[in-house]
Amino acid sequence: MKRALITGITGQDGSYLTELLLEKGYKVYGVVRRKSKADFGTVEHLKKDIEFIYADLTDMASLIRAMKIAQPDEVYNLAAQSFVATSWEQPIATSEINAIGVTNLLEAILVVKPEARFYQASTSEMFGLVQETPQTETTPFYPRSPYGVAKLYGHWITKNYRESFQMYACSGILFNHESPRRGLEFVTRKITDAVARIKYGLQDTLYLGNMDAKRDWGYAGDYVKAMWLMLQQKEADDYVIASGETHPVREFVELAFRHAGFEIDWTGEGVGEKGLDRATGKVLVAVDPRFFRPAEIELLLGNPDKAYQVLGWERAVGFEELVRKMVVADLKQVGSEVAGSTK
């Protein structure tokens, strides 16, 4: 039985990866931070199948202990301060977790079990002000947020340990990947949750920032398969994982509302842009300058050819199906809340 240690196991990717590894017969250990109230997040339904270890990326001693307990064949570092907007408000904490934390974990592996295979969750945010389109494994990086900068350190320190200590250490440069398990602070889930609440009369308007920002969106359940595949290769390497398509936030909004029975007509430009309900003329979407980033990334588009060819990775869920999945899940969630409150 293979053994895997996952940091960030209670997040979106952690839950899908755990399901995948359990299906493949792994013994799964999950790193969680000590809290006053136990919170197993998206793996609540799997907690009986996981052995949890209390540790923190900023505390190397706890990571060494976690490695000694788990004795993993594979280590997946999914833990991070993962909200880009928060990285401007907490740049030091973001750096300690997303940059130094990666080094701490690599050191813990080196001390306890250097033959363990390591996966680092890198991000398309490292490309930032993109230097070429589409972005590949060789595209120069130009991060535009403290989050992106810290993640870039984590990416390069992983490569450095691979080349310096011959560790099997690789990075997945994952473009935006979403699901019904995405946190509400992320724009995609913010949209689908708002659509459901507007549908049930609990909210009037959805407020967003830059409607023109274009992203390469995929389904998280597909992307964790690429993580696993990276650690099954003969040699460690880095891979871009993406859909190869880009869509503006505006299009995501239109599709989400359509799946809930609304058609959006747009009026105005910039901060004055509004999305109107075609049937009633009611303002369902409006722009709020508070949600603009200090340094915006206008376009991200990944080229996943290397992952297709070397890993044999394939996507199962396209963009429209992803949006539909998220809207349907939030309609069900909000609908059950409404039903419960009326009893």
Automatic annotation (TrEMBL):
<dbReference type="InterPro" id="IPR016040">
    <property type="entry name" value="NAD(P)-bd_dom"/>
</dbReference>
<dbReference type="GO" id="GO:0070401">
    <property type="term" value="F:NADP+ binding"/>
</dbReference>
<keyword id="KW-0521">NADP</keyword>
<feature type="domain" description="NAD(P)-binding">
    <location>
        <begin position="5"/>
        <end position="326"/>
    </location>
</feature>
<keyword id="KW-0456">Lyase</keyword>
<protein>
    <recommendedName>
        <fullName>GDP-mannose 4,6-dehydratase</fullName>
        <ecNumber>4.2.1.47</ecNumber>
    </recommendedName>
</protein>
<comment type="similarity">
    <text>Belongs to the NAD(P)-dependent epimerase/dehydratase family. GDP-mannose 4,6-dehydratase subfamily.</text>
</comment>
<dbReference type="GO" id="GO:0042351">
    <property type="term" value="P:'de novo' GDP-L-fucose biosynthetic process"/>
</dbReference>
<dbReference type="GO" id="GO:0008446">
    <property type="term" value="F:GDP-mannose 4,6-dehydratase activity"/>
</dbReference>
<dbReference type="InterPro" id="IPR006368">
    <property type="entry name" value="GDP_Man_deHydtase"/>
</dbReference>
<dbReference type="InterPro" id="IPR036291">
    <property type="entry name" value="NAD(P)-bd_dom_sf"/>
</dbReference>
<dbReference type="Pfam" id="PF16363">
    <property type="entry name" value="GDP_Man_Dehyd"/>
</dbReference>
<comment type="function">
    <text>Catalyzes the conversion of GDP-D-mannose to GDP-4-dehydro-6-deoxy-D-mannose.</text>
</comment>
